[in-house]
């Protein structure tokens, strides 16, 4: 009677000695694919649009009372109105007249751009002032620009050539909110008397290239 038990023990021992994978039965496996369709993400909204240009109004060409090389300087500012001067002299109120006859005849206006951007984003603004093709006219930057809401609220003042700004200076708005703000520009126009100046005509004194970039 010991033989059957001995045989059974040998069989169990032999099965235990087999590799583990040899003891598994009725297994299945599958490879499940994963797919995705990708689209190009749109750039965050960033746009500059002209609201109105810088306008120096009607001004005079310098006379030759002091010098044939006299220059009139007309300044449009975002925080101090219109000013006029001659080289080497301080700027004065727009109601004055210099010894070279420099004066404002008719009111102009500061320029404005509408900036559309993400509310909680930071941007770098760069402004480049370029003179036009009319001989005797030179356009340069005034000291400052102003960034504000369309109604003038939340105003910020920055240097006229470059500056880091926050699109909207209130942190309570969601980061995805799109806002439109106004950037106001002035400038300094220098007029030197030359031959055949286009007197009586409205001409382009220059341009202001404005570049905005998210940081």
Major β-sheet strand ordering: 1-7-13-10-11
* SSE string: HHEEEEEEEEEEEEEEE
Largest sheet: 5 strands, antiparallel
Number of separate strands: 15
Low-confidence segments, given as residue ranges, are: 5-12
Overall outline? elongated
Give the strand content: 35-45%
Q: Gyration radius, to the nearest Å? A: 37 Å
Which range best describes the helical content: under 10%, 10-25%, 25-40%, 40-55%, 55-70% or over 70%?
Answer: under 10%
Mean pLDDT: 84
Count of alpha/pi helices:
2
Helix-strand makeup class:
mainly beta
What is the CA-CA span between the terminal residues?
91 Å
Overview of this structure, please?
By secondary structure, the protein is mainly beta. Helix content is 9%, strand content 38%. The chain contains two helices and 15 strands. The strands form four sheets. A five-stranded antiparallel sheet has the order 1-7-13-10-11, with no helix packed on it. The chain has a five-stranded antiparallel sheet with strand order 5-4-3-14-9, with no helix packed on it. A three-stranded antiparallel sheet has the order 12-8-15, with no helix packed on it. A hairpin with a 5-residue loop joins strand 3 and strand 4. The chain is elongated, with a radius of gyration of 37 Å. The chain starts with a helix and ends with a strand.
């Amino acid at each position: 009677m010991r033989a059957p038990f001995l045989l059974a023990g040998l069989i169990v021992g032999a099965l235990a000695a087999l590799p583990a994978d040899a003891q598994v039965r009725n297994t299945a496996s599958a490879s499940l694919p994963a797919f995705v369709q990708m689209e190009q993400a749109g750039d965050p909204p960033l746009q500059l649009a002209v609201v109105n240009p810088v306008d120096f109004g009607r001004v005079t060409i310098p006379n030759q009372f002091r010098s044939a090389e006299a220059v009139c300087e007309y300044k449009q500012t975002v925080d101090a109105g219109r000013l006029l001067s001659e080289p080497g002299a301080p700027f004065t109120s727009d109601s004055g007249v210099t010894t070279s006859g420099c004066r404002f005849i008719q009111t102009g206006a500061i320029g404005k751009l509408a900036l559309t951007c993400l509310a909680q984003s930071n941007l770098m603004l760069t402004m480049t002032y370029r003179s036009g093709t009319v001989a005797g006219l030179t356009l340069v930057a005034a000291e400052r620009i102003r960034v504000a809401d369309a109604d003038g609220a939340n105003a910020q003042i920055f240097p006229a050539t470059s500056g880091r700004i926050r699109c909207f200076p209130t942190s309570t708005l969601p980061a995805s909110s799109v806002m439109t703000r106004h950037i106001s520009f002035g400038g300094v126009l220098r007029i030197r008397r030359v031959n055949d100046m286009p007197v009586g005509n409205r001409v382009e004194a220059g341009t202001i290239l404005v570049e905005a970039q998210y940081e």
